[in-house]
């Protein structure tokens, strides 16, 4: 049996420019973001300023992780213990986990055929729960109808927080992902669009939200060392009533990220070329249903999702096993138990809200997920399609064994 030889979790090496920047920080010994010499701006503050410029927003805060950024956003926006917080039924566990960690109660919202949130069910869930917050996860890089979503939030008085872990560099109708809500939260974990191992970025245009976030992240009284934050004199009241929940990014990770940020657009083009090649190949298979993308969405195709609705559960299981045997580790959201990073909402046992989610149940039952690292090329995509086709033929073969 032929196997695909490359790893689906192997990222590109860190560039020489980023390595040199990181080594320069290490040579100083000043890894902590606020440990600066006179006249020095610091890698973390410069990263915040550059990322803010890329989004066209005034304020950005670098922090320990994307999940921490979500917790920080909720707290800075005024979440109180026990408050209901809406979020997509289709997302990864750090999203409801962040809501739980911040003291909220996650209320799940059903999805549409393209896996994005259903605006009608969003409105219904808001009415039922009285929620004042919505953490919108652009799960696996799919951006929903932002006009409809924002309209529901405005009509219901809901604070929108965007989880952009999979949409850094993406836009909807020409507007950057992360700028539709009060706060945008991004991740720089290894498998995201910028790689610092772990890390997060929080963006907003609201000065009071940023003041709270800066103090909560652990600035102490050093908030004047930020370049993408409100003026230092405006912190006078916030600094004394806001708890320190230490979760800063350090200069070493920021040094790794700044050269990568400059390459984000070219990475996006490369990812999308791989995505379109793989998508086109899979779409030719009669049993594979790819996920439609709206015209207004300019996405970053760092992973690809597809459905197999005509297969039985046994056939799907055989297909997944066949792909695994051929070196292709597909993730299946219909699997009974969580595996690796993949889980479904019914495995998050700490959730207290139970709403019927018929679309999510039906769609996730046959939904598969595949990483697309930039260490692949278009020939690799063709090989993957061929091997997946072989696995599909074997899984659906009805010829009796002799």
CATH T-level fold name of the largest domain: Aspartate Aminotransferase, domain 2
- Estimate what percentage of residues fall within beta strands: 5-15%
The geometry reads as globular
Q: Supply the CATH class of the largest domain.
A: Alpha Beta
Our count of domains comes out at 2
Question: How far apart are the termini?
Answer: 21 Å
Describe the sheet with the most strands.
7 strands, mixed
- Any idea what the radius of gyration is? 22 Å
CATH architecture of the largest domain: 3-Layer(aba) Sandwich
Going by helix content, strand content and strand pairing, the class is alpha/beta
Number of strands: 14
Q: CATH homologous superfamily name of the largest domain?
A: Type I PLP-dependent aspartate aminotransferase-like (Major domain)
Percent helix, as a range, is: 25-40%
Question: Helix-strand pattern, N to C?
Answer: HHEHEHEHEHEEEEEHHHHEEEHEHEH
Unreliable stretches (pLDDT < 50, length at least 5) are none
Task: Please work out how many helical segments DSSP would assign.
Answer: 13
Can you list the strand order of the major beta sheet?
1-9-8-5-4-2-3
Summarize model confidence as the mean pLDDT.
97
Active site: 192 (proton acceptor)
GO molecular function: pyridoxal phosphate binding; transaminase activity
Keywords: Aminotransferase, Pyridoxal phosphate, Transferase
Pfam families: DegT_DnrJ_EryC1
């Amino acid at each position: 049996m032929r196997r695909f030889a490359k790893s689906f979790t192997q990222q590109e090496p860190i560039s020489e420019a980023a390595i040199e920047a990181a080594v320069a920080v290490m040579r100083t010994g000043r890894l902590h973001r606020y440990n600066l010499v006179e006249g020095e701006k610091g890698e973390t503050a410069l990263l915040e300023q550059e990322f803010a410029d890329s989004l066209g927003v005034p304020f950005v805060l670098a922090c320990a992780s994307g999940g921490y950024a979500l917790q920080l956003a909720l707290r800075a926006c005024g979440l109180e213990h026990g408050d209901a917080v809406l979020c997509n039924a289709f997302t990864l566990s750090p999203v409801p986990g962040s809501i739980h960690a911040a003291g909220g109660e996650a209320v799940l919202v059903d999805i549409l055929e393209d896996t994005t949130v259903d605006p009608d069910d969003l409105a219904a869930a808001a009415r039922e729960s009285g929620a004042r917050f919505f953490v919108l996860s652009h799960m696996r890089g799919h951006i929903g109808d932002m006009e409809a979503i924002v309209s529901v939030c405005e009509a219901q008085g809901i604070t929108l927080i965007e989880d952009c872990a999979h949409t850094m560099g993406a836009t909807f109708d020409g507007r950057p992902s992360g700028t539709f809500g009060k706060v945008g939260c991004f991740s720089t974990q290894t498998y995201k669009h910028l790689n610092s191992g772990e890390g997060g970025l929080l963006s907003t245009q609201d000065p009071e939200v940023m003041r709270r976030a800066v103090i909560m992240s652990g600035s102490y009284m050093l908030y004047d060392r930020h370049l993408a934050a409100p003026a230092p004199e405006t912190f006078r009241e916030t600094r004394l009533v806001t708890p320190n929940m230490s979760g800063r990014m350090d200069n070493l990770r920021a040094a790794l990220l700044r050269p990568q940020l400059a390459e984000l657009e070219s990475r996006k083009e490369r990812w999308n070329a791989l995505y379109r090649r793989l998508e086109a190949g899979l779409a030719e298979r009669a049993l594979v249903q790819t996920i439609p993308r709206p015209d207004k969405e300019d996405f970053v195709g760092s992973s690809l999702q597809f459905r197999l609705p005509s297969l039985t559960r046994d056939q799907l299981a055989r297909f997944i096993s066949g792909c695994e045997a051929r070196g292709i580790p597909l993730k299946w959201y219909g699997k009974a138990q969580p595996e690796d990073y993949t889980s479904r909402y019914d495995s998050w046992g700490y959730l207290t809200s139970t709403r019927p989610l018929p679309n999510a149940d039906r769609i996730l039952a046959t939904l598969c997920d595949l990483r697309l690292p930039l260490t692949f090329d278009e020939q690799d995509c063709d090989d993957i399609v061929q091997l997946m086709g072989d696995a599909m033929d074997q899984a659906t073969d009805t010829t009796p064994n002799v």
